[in-house]
């Protein structure tokens, strides 16, 4: 596989004169935006330090995994062993305790993520300064979650993968990062599927075999390392467990209908239960039921949809609607990969689990990389419009979140935050509709192929 197969050319991105970077041109001094990104990372760590250094229930699994190894941790947590074992390595080398080693890994990951994101924003869209409004939002704290989770570590590996693809550092580095992603989170299968899909669509099919091989190798290594790990709480096979999560989470997060299982602990008491016949038993599941309707779940889903990435989803929708042209065919493979993978993650987030904030955060590639390129290429964004939309982005990202944080379990409070976010989104939509296409937006500008 050649390094250029997926990356495309990385020539300068020819920004239209009326783009948001017309008065904020691409920096010629990388040190400037590296310092800017590092400052953002320090601010985020300072503002959210209490949250970042707090163990959640899942965080205890990863702490124990670092301490005891994957063989003593139940699946699927045991399958996510690379991050905790890397933390354990830091602890062994530096003689720091595990807590401080988790903090050290988290701070390092945050710094690398911010710098790599700023670098890509500079090279793809000419807007490295955009790392400030993107990262200094409520969404960044949700994406990072806590230093005990693998989310930030995974995001850092992912942005480094994008960076190696853009810089053409060679396929060996790229596939090694892909392997590391597999050993960090099992849902990397979705990333592999997107890479294969983009490669097929862009006729870069020589990369498909190495990606398939690395995906298989990652699965084999994970299975071998966790061969003696206890089964999941339901004592069922991993594939069945992952498959049944989809309908289970759909009912809970989209409809507010929580299915009760006899293997659950500390959940709402069911309003009725049904004992399954022996031939329907799945692992330790012998009884199912339904809990009372819980509107807080679909309200939380709506809140995340309306607020997590500010007004970036609006730019994506209006961009596709206004342009009405085959953008996918004009986009570089890398840009198409960030868009497809990020958007798929964002759409299927309610189907993957109960931790909505962390799951929605996985959609960052489309809103923090692909959308800025789309806006820079296709929108005429004068300074006044930029300032107004920037203010609305800040309001959508923070004000509803502050209200929501007062009591995330309260239906009236969450409903109020959803309504307020919806109002801000409507105002932003009206502002975006006034924008005109940028000069050359409807011309076959080949430079977009190299973005």
What share of residues is helical?
55-70%
Sheet with most strands: 3 strands, antiparallel
Q: What is the mean pLDDT? A: 81
Strand content: under 5%
Q: Tell me the total number of β-strands.
A: 5
Distance N terminus to C terminus?
Answer: 21 Å
Radius of gyration, taken over Cα atoms and rounded to an integer in Å: 22 Å
Strand order of the largest sheet: 1-3-2
Structural class: mainly alpha
Summed up, the helix count is 21
Q: Uncertain regions: pLDDT < 50 for 5+ in a row?
A: 1-27, 442-450
List the helices and strands and how they pair.
Layout: H1 4-7, H2 30-47, H3 49-52, H4 57-68, H5 82-94, H6 98-125, H7 131-135, H8 138-144, H9 151-167, H10 171-182, H11 188-201, H12 208-225, H13 238-255, E1 259-261, E2 272-275, E3 287-290, H14 296-307, H15 312-323, H16 327-330, H17 333-348, H18 356-360, H19 364-378, E4 379-380, H20 383-406, H21 411-433, E5 436-437
Antiparallel strand pairs: 1-3, 2-3, 4-5
Helix pairs in contact: 2-6, 4-5, 5-6, 6-9, 6-19, 9-10, 10-12, 11-12, 11-17, 13-14, 14-21, 15-19, 17-19, 20-21
Walk me through this protein's architecture.
There is one protein chain. The chain has 451 residues and is mainly α. The chain folds into two domains: 4-228 and 308-381 and 435-450, no CATH class; 238-295, no CATH class. The protein has 21 helices and five strands. The strands form two sheets. Strands 1-3-2 form a three-stranded antiparallel sheet. A two-stranded antiparallel ribbon has the order 4-5. α6 (98-125) packs parallel to α19 and α20 packs antiparallel against α21. The relative contact order is 0.13. Residues 1-27 and 442-450 have low confidence and may be disordered.
């Amino acid at each position: 596989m050649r390094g250029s197969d997926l990356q495309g050319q990385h020539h300068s991105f020819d920004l239209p004169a009326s783009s948001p970077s017309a008065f904020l041109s691409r920096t010629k001094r990388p040190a400037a935006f590296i310092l800017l990104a590092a400052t953002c990372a320090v601010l985020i760590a300072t503002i959210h330090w209490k949250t970042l250094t707090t163990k959640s229930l899942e965080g205890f699994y990863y702490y124990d995994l670092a301490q005891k190894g994957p063989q003593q941790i139940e699946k699927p947590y045991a399958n996510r062993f690379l991050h905790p074992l890397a933390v354990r390595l830091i602890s062994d080398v530096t003689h720091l305790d595990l807590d401080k080693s988790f903090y050290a890994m988290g701070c390092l990951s945050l710094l690398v993520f911010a710098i790599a994101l700023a670098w890509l924003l500079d090279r793809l869209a000419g807007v490295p300064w955009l790392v400030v409004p993107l990262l200094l939002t409520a969404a960044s704290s949700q994406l990072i979650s806590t230093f005990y989770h693998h989310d930030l570590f995974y995001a850092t590996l992912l942005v480094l993968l994008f960076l190696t693809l853009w810089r053409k550092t060679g396929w060996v580095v790229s596939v090694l990062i892909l392997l590391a992603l597999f050993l960090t989170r099992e849902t990397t299968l979705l990333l592999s599927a997107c890479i294969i899909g983009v490669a097929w669509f862009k006729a870069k099919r020589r990369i498909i075999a190495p990606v398939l091989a690395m995906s298989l190798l990652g699965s084999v290594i994970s299975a071998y390392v966790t061969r003696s790990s206890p089964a999941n709480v339901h004592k069922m096979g991993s594939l069945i467990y992952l498959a049944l999560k989809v309908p289970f989470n759909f009912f809970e997060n989209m409809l507010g209908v929580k299915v009760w299982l006899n293997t659950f602990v500390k959940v709402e008491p069911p309003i009725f239960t049904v004992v399954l016949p022996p031939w329907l038993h799945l692992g330790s599941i012998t009884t199912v039921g339904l809990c009372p309707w819980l509107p807080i779940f679909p309200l939380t889903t709506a809140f995340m949809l309306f607020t997590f990435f500010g007004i970036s989803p609006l730019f994506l929708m209006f961009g596709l609607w206004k342009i009405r042209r085959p953008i996918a065919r004009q986009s570089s493979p890398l840009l198409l990969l960030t868009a497809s993978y990020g958007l798929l993650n964002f759409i299927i987030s309610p189907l993957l689990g109960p931790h909505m904030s962390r799951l929605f955060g996985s959609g960052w590639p489309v809103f923090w990389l692909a959308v800025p390129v789309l806006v820079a290429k296709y929108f005429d964004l004068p300074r006044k419009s930029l300032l107004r939309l920037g203010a609305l982005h800040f309001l959508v990202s923070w004000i509803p979140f502050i209200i929501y944080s007062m009591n995330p379990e309260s239906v009236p409070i969450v409903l109020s935050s959803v309504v307020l976010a919806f109002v801000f989104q409507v105002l932003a939509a009206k502002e975006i509709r006034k924008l005109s296409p940028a000069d050359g937006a409807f011309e076959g500008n080949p430079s977009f192929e190299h973005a």
